[in-house]
Amino acid sequence: MTANTIAINQMMDKFDGRHSVWLFGYGSLIYKADFPYLQRRPASIAGWTRRFWQGSHDHRGTPEAPGRVVTLIEEAGAICHGMAYLITPEVFAHLDHREKNGYLRLAMPITFEDRDEVEGLVYIATPDNTAFLGAASEQDIAAHIARSVGPSGPNSDYLNHLATALRELGRHDQHVFEIERHLAALQSK
Ligand code: SIN
């Protein structure tokens, strides 16, 4: 699958005709809401886990030297915590552009903290996209992040903002916090 997903996402018609749709964010969408929204609520999705396995050609790296950003990987029993936004359909043009490097809009159940559930959308970079980098140790991911930079700034900012946002949500993410620890050690050398 091509790394630019704009055209595929524009054909996603599942929520056509709706005035508003819930969007679940688990990466930069938690800490950088550069779009209008009607409501924002902490939420989670079941069966998926957050991993720094996606290459970033356009934000935290370049096509020649991609950075590493998060995507979701299916894992039975896993719960991924993040932030859900109630948005209107006009916002998708901006989001499709922002998430164009491999992320597809997928429909799935979103659970709020009070256990209410809705069907909403999540941008996920699936392993068949050409920018997917896949698994590596947390130490190797930290080293990769330490040397990466792109048009949106240093890759380390992405990681640190995400770790801070997860702490603010009161959510522990071992993968993210372990990479943060390795990165801090590298940067203090
Ligand atoms: C998300 O935050 O939900 C998608 C990945 C990203 O933009 O970092």
Could you characterize the architecture of this molecule?
The chain has a single domain (6-187), classed as Gamma-glutamyl cyclotransferase-like (Hypothetical upf0131 protein ytfp), CATH 3.10.490. It starts with 5 loop residues before the first helix and ends with a helix. It has helices at residues 6-10, 28-31, 92-98, 138-146, 155-168, 174-187, and strands at 21-25, 39-56, 67-87, 103-112, 117-125, 149-150, 153-154. The strands form two sheets. It has a five-stranded mixed barrel with strand order 1-3-2-4-5. The mean pLDDT is 95. It is built from six helices and seven strands. The protein is globular and about 55 Å long. It has 189 residues and is of the alpha+beta class. One of its GO terms (molecular function) is glutathione specific gamma-glutamylcyclotransferase activity. Keywords: Lyase. This is glutathione-specific gamma-glutamylcyclotransferase.
- The number of domains is 1
Q: What name goes with the CATH superfamily? A: Gamma-glutamyl cyclotransferase-like
> What proportion of the residues is helical, as a percent range?
25-40%
CATH topology: the name is: Hypothetical upf0131 protein ytfp
Count all strands and give the number.
7
Distance between the termini: 40 Å
Flag low-confidence runs: none
CATH architecture: Roll
Tally the helices: what do you get? 6
Order of helices and strands: HEHEEHEEHEEHH
Computed structural class: alpha+beta
Give the CATH class: Alpha Beta
The kinds of small molecule bound in this structure are:
succinic acid
The residue-averaged pLDDT reads 95
Quote the beta fraction.
35-45%
Q: Which value, in Å, is the CA radius of gyration?
A: 16 Å
Strand order of the largest sheet: 1-3-2-4-5
How would you characterize the largest beta sheet? 5 strands, mixed, barrel
Q: Characterize the overall form.
A: globular
